[in-house]
Design a protein that fits this description.
CATH topology of the largest domain: D-amino Acid Aminotransferase, Chain A, domain 1
Helix content: 25-40%
CATH architecture of the largest domain: 2-Layer Sandwich
CATH superfamily of the largest domain: ATP-grasp fold, B domain
CATH class of the largest domain: Alpha Beta
Number of domains: 5
Strand content: 25-35%
Number of helices: 16
Radius of gyration: 27 Å
Largest sheet: 8 strands, antiparallel
Number of strands: 39
Shape: globular
Mean pLDDT: 91
Structural class: alpha+beta
Low-confidence stretches: 645-650
């Protein structure tokens, strides 16, 4: 092997390119038009445009990927995760083209890609499983609550929790639509749902020479929408005997399959009964693989490349050791305060802190665009420490110090979660988010918000002086007569913060009744003293927004104009899109009487369905969208008359 084509994008493509560098292999990136300036394009030695922007036209287009491999002269192909990484047809096409496939054999991918077939194989191998059925009529035998799961799926797509029999039909239909859109296969099955359990997975490695080892467990229980957001290794509750039993079960199944390359055997662990049940096998690298790398010192991507080149593992089970604890957080462009809905926009600020020293597997940089067509994950952030508490604290601090603005993210939610007493105590079952309910956004008291606003206002005055074209040598705020204070209004989270300041003869500023002094100003930073407390803050301004770093995150303000131009407000009684996406279904007509909470429109974004519900009871008077429409965030979908006074927003 000399050159590897990376059939993926984002942070995993950057990660693979780095592994190729370490292995002295050339790397080739591919990219959609929207990704022309993406980080993974410059991380590789060369890059090829796929033409188009949709997944189907680019990263899911097998002929285009094979053509790029042929043109570049790549003799190996790494699929990363997601997209075509678990597509047996793609693996066969790569092998048939004479290119080394970095992953398991197509036969193993095919057998494990069908979750029902995988469960049958697990049962035959003697691995315990949860009750399940591919017949919705057998729901009573499976028992409620249950999960509707895509037979060919993963990543939380095509999954629905069903508490009551009367909700089953709609859940099955929704899961089928989502599975069809994400995987091209609408088959679903039912499986017993365990509300309070732990999601434990075992990392395996196998080569073509029959060598097979496991690298311990990862716990991935903290999830939203059945997708993992925080992972760690080792689990805080698995002891040596349980680790050995789960590892042996994973290896038994892997031997049955003749497994080669990296893979993961996933289990559901009932802590009360100390019992585990097989869930699935992921025949690819997992997003959370870095925590295993951190505690074992084994580079999993390097091992994948070596195995694909026909080399034997250079580790046996006895030589695998575990050191310390590692925790990973997935940084997503999403809004936790709005049900973790995906977010879009441009990252006007993105600067990873130098301290504490942790691992950033990032796929973005300042200026990167986050769209609706691809997964909203921006980075994997990983901390390693001698203890679990130290690793978690280091990760939380790094997330807080990340300078980030322009796109709504889950950064504050992640940091707050890592600091909760429940997390630090290891109380991390799959219902963690609903049960513990960590803060969903940046927690700021009134004084903290005021200090951030003062820093923003004084940075803006410094920027004005730096760009002054007339009398540029005069000190900031100089006047030859008595003038009222300068006034800046900054909006944060729907609230307006007013800052008034006036220059004093000694170079300080009167800020309201307080005194401030700017010790240092630069285009990206301000060192300001307010009431005897001095703080240096990273600052990024872009258009009408300004982003100020504070001790526990980044405060984003909208700079309000002095004179508000006339414009249209939100439509009274309007039902508005909570995110950009495509309209899958409109479930009402003009004249329909609807109840509060009733699903009226179904949107699709990032290959997942999102239900938009009526905020109030009333009559539908206007519908502005039809199936297939693409809508922007905040667009009016329909109008409901709830009988209130005209013009009253609902």
């Amino acid at each position: 092997m000399r050159k590897v084509l990376i059939a993926n994008r984002g942070e995993i493509a950057v990660r693979i390119a780095r592994a190729c560098d370490d292995a002295q292999l050339a790397s080739v990136a591919v990219y959609a038009d929207i990704d022309a300036d993406a980080l993974h394009v410059t991380a590789a030695d060369e890059a090829y445009a796929l033409g188009g922007n949709s997944p189907a036209d680019t990263y899911l287009n097998i002929p285009k990927l094979l053509a790029a491999a042929a043109e570049s002269g790549a003799d190996a192909l790494h699929p990363g995760y997601g997209f075509l990484s678990e597509n047996a047809g793609f693996a066969r096409a790569v092998i048939d083209a004479g290119i080394a496939w970095v992953g398991p054999t197509p036969e193993v991918i095919e057998s494990m890609g069908d979750k029902l077939a995988a469960k049958r194989i697990a049962v035959e191998a003697g691995v315990p499983t949860l009750p399940s059925s591919d017949d919705p009529a057998s729901a009573g035998e499976v028992g409620f609550p249950l999960l509707v799961k895509a037979a060919a799926g993963g990543g939380g797509k095509g999954m629905r929790i069903v508490e009551r029999p009367e909700d089953l039909d709609e859940a099955v239909a929704a899961a089928q639509r989502e599975a069809k859109g994400a995987f091209g296969d609408d088959r679903v099955f039912l499986e017993r749902y365990v509300p309070r359990a732990r999601h434990i997975e075992i990392q395996i490695l196998g080569d073509e020479h029959g060598n097979l080892i496991h690298l311990g467990e990862r716990e991935c229980s903290i999830q939203r929408r059945h997708q993992k957001v925080i992972e760690e290794s080792p689990s805080p509750v698995i002891d040596g005997a349980q680790r050995s039993a789960m590892g042996e079960a994973a290896l038994t199944l892997a031997r049955t399959l003749g497994y080669r390359s990296a893979g993961t055997v996933e289990f559901l662990y009932d802590e009360d009964r100390a019992e585990f049940s097989f869930l699935e096998v992921n025949t690819r690298l997992q997003v959370e693989h870095p925590v295993t790398e951190e505690v074992t010192g084994i580079d999993l991507v390097r091992e994948q490349l070596r195995i694909a080149a026909g080399e034997a593992l250079d580790h046996d089970q006895d030589s695998v050791t575990f050191t310390g604890h590692a925790v990973e957080a997935r940084l997503y462009a999403e809004d936790p305060a709005s049900g973790f809905l995906p977010a879009t926009g441009r990252l006007v600020a993105y600067e990873e802190p130098a301290d504490p020293a942790i691992r950033w597997d990032s796929g973005v940089a300042a200026g990167s665009v986050v769209g609706v067509d691809f997964d909203p994950m921006l980075a994997k952030v990983v901390a390693h420490g001698p203890t679990r508490a130290e690793a978690a604290g280091r990760l939380a601090l790094a997330l807080e110090r990340l300078h980030l603005g322009g796109v709504v993210t889950n950064r504050a939610f992640l940091a707050e979660t890592l600091r909760t007493p429940a997390f630090l105590a290891g109380d991390t079952t799959t219902d963690f988010i609903d049960r513990i309910d960590p803060p969903r956004s940046l927690v700021l008291d009134e004084e903290g918000l005021r200090r951030a606003a003062v820093a923003a206002a004084l940075w803006l005055q410094g920027d004005n002086r730096a760009h002054a074209r007339v009398l540029a040598d005069l000190p900031s705020g100089w006047r030859n007569s008595l003038m009222p204070p300068e006034r800046v209004v900054l909006r944060h989270g729907g609230d307006d913060v007013e800052v008034t300041y006036q220059s004093r003869r000694d170079g300080s500023f009167a800020v309201g009744e307080d005194r401030a002094r700017v010790h240092e100003w630069s285009p990206g930073e301000i060192d300001v003293e307010l009431d005897g407390r001095r703080t240096r803050s990273r600052v990024t301004a872009a258009g009408a927004s300004i982003h100020v770093q504070v001790p526990n995150g980044t405060v984003s303000f909208e700079i309000m104009p002095r004179f508000t131009p006339p414009g249209a407000d939100l439509t009274g009684g309007g039902l508005h899109a909570p995110m950009p996406g495509a309209v899958l279904e409109v479930r009402c007509s003009v004249g329909d009487e609807v109840e509060a909470g009733q699903v009226l429109v179904v949107l699709e974004a990032m290959k997942m369905e999102h239900h938009v519900r009526a905020p109030v009871a009333g009559v539908v008077t206007e519908i502005r969208v039809t199936t297939g429409d693409q809508v922007d965030n905040g667009a009016t979908l329909l109008v409901i008359d709830d009988g209130t006074a005209e013009g009253d927003d609902t």
